[in-house]
Write a structure and sequence with these properties.
Layout (H helix, E strand, L loop, with lengths): L1 H14 L13 H9 L3 H17 L18 H14 L8 H12 L6
């Protein structure tokens, strides 16, 4: 069974178009700002979930070179507000990847003491 799955994986990879394995940006700062500013609870919830995921990944590890220390008491709503406020203040950064924007915003809002 394992051999069959491995062969299937290689067939899929071989059939993938050139460049398909390159990194892809799934969100930009502009997309996050639009979602966080929308009146839709669904859109803002998806954006907050994305931000929360980046915050989890970056717990003690730099994200796109940005190190942040989010307090355990911070809510997804608070994280979303920090990112939205940062994007309002830095409109030139709205076309950057969502991961980098979130990293920069959280590093600005929650710098790590003594690091």
């Amino acid at each position: 069974m394992r051999l069959g799955l491995t062969a299937l994986a290689w067939c899929v990879l071989a059939a993938a178009p050139a460049g398909a394995m390159e990194h892809r940006t799934y969100a930009t700062g502009q997309m996050l700002l639009r979602a966080l500013s929308a009146g839709s609870a669904y859109e803002s919830g998806v954006a907050r979930g994305y931000i929360g995921g980046i915050a989890d990944i970056g717990a003690g590890e730099p994200v796109n070179g940005f190190l942040f220390c989010v307090p355990k008491t911070a809510t997804l709503e608070q994280l979303g507000e920090k990112v939205r406020a940062w994007l309002d203040k830095h409109p030139e950064s709205r076309n950057y990847s969502g991961k980098g924007v979130v990293g920069a915003a959280l590093a600005d809002a929650y710098p790590c003491a003594g690091r």
